[in-house]
Amino acid sequence: MVFYSACAIGNAQVDSLSRKSYQELVTAFQSAIEKDAQLAFQYAEAAHTLASSKNNPQQIGESLYFLAKANNDLSQNKLALTQLSKVIHVANQLKDSVLLFKGNVLRGNVYNDVGDESNALQAYLEAEKSSAFSEKSSDLILLFINIAFIKKLHKDYKDAVTIFTENLEQLQTITIDSNKKRRYELIILMNLTDTYLRMKEDGNSTNIEKAEYYNTIGLEKCGDDTASAFYNVLLMNKAIIQFEKEVYQESIAIAHKVKAKAETTNNEGLTCTAYFYLGKNYHRLEDYPESIRFFNLAYDIMKTSERKYSNETILHDLQAQNYLRIKDIDKAEFHLELFRKLIKAQGKKDLETQKTLADTHDQKIREERVKRLQNSLDELKQRKLFLYIISGVLVVLLLLSVVFYRRKVRKIKEKVAQVLEKVEILEKSQADIQKKPVKSVENITDEKALNILKKLEEFEASEAFLVQGCTLIYVAEQLNSNTTYLSKVINTYKGKTFNSYINELRINKALIQLKNDAKLRSYNIKGIAEEFGFKRQETFSRAFKQQTGIYPSQYLKKLDQTAKDD
Q: What is the Cβ-side half-sphere exposure of residue 237, based on CA atoms within 13 angstroms?
């Protein structure tokens, strides 16, 4: 990873730090570390001074960790390692597994920066041992990212991509602070971009699109935060992508922009990378003097830095070619010899690191995958058993449904047959088949009631009940009676309410007419309902079902089948 720092804060601000609480200093450090390592260092130093004055072991260990983090970003790697040894000592004394985990992870990062991958891997493995986190812990994700980083450096690209992508997906499934999640996402996206770019250098040209894809996502996540370390690294990646796509002038323009920012903020790593790719661009453009100039600037940083730069080998190769082009044989031989030494040492280191990874971390991962596979198989067996049970239940339910359906169909057929018998009776006699003997009713004379009943017979014969406005008031007016008396007569002598009486007349009429009128049967239910005095289809269907036990559609279906059979 590449970080950059800004200018140191003034004495006035340093003096003001002594008035801040420990927690205020920690918050200020966390806010500054991604944008200004020098400022972050000042906050960490003030926090450590305060913690030491109070002799607070927990705060002493934590503030030492912050100092180490800031120093590493400032390329003070040896000092950072010294401080981290103290952090781990304090963490062990306090039995603080979180601080121990963080200290070992950062120690691994520092060892990575100085090119000591063996100790870096050992530190990560120690962090893994001390981790008190679950598999979904965000800090454990960071540990796997760092292990993938080592794999990337030593050309185990396939495994590196797998770890990066798996942990990018894992971040979406865990509960984590939004800022921390964004930071981890950007770290993974930068590493995925870099991994695919390295795969391109191995001759796999199809991966440049994947590099650009992940880098674009990273830049979009940065948004307007162009001052962050992440943005400038991603912007440098964009320059590298344009170089690989052979869009050299655009790559040069972006690299110069990154270089200016990195030089202003004293960001050694980013400055060196910008110089290096400016040298590569000019080499491709065959501007060898300019290429030599930028490669020399990059090499000056590499020679004096505590960090180890993975692109130094390529630099000596290209610089040797540059000097050959301008016929400077001595300098060409100098860089060629350095190139030979580095390539030999790097090849041996790649093999050793890959073997160590395979024997330690990878073996553990394989064992965990076997365990997860076995668990998956057990779950699959349980799921199959559950599916068998569910299938059995469904079969039983299906059989019961078939039995119930057949029974229901049989009942419907029986009811339809009964309705057809009723229709035959209705056709022979229009009289009310359910008419009951006249009952004596208090305060009602037989003569008056019989007069109303005779008028009702005339009303029925005229089929005035088919009028949609056939209400109790309407019928009372037609019979020269009042609603109260008429209602009592119908209730007493017909044995039903006025509405039931009218609905029965209408349904009986519908049963007969539908049987004998094919054209009427072609109407939809709404049309049929209106034909027999009902304003709404639902009212008609409900009255039909209540009187016959079947729905109009079932009756019509039977009539149509009978008509076809005939």
A: 32
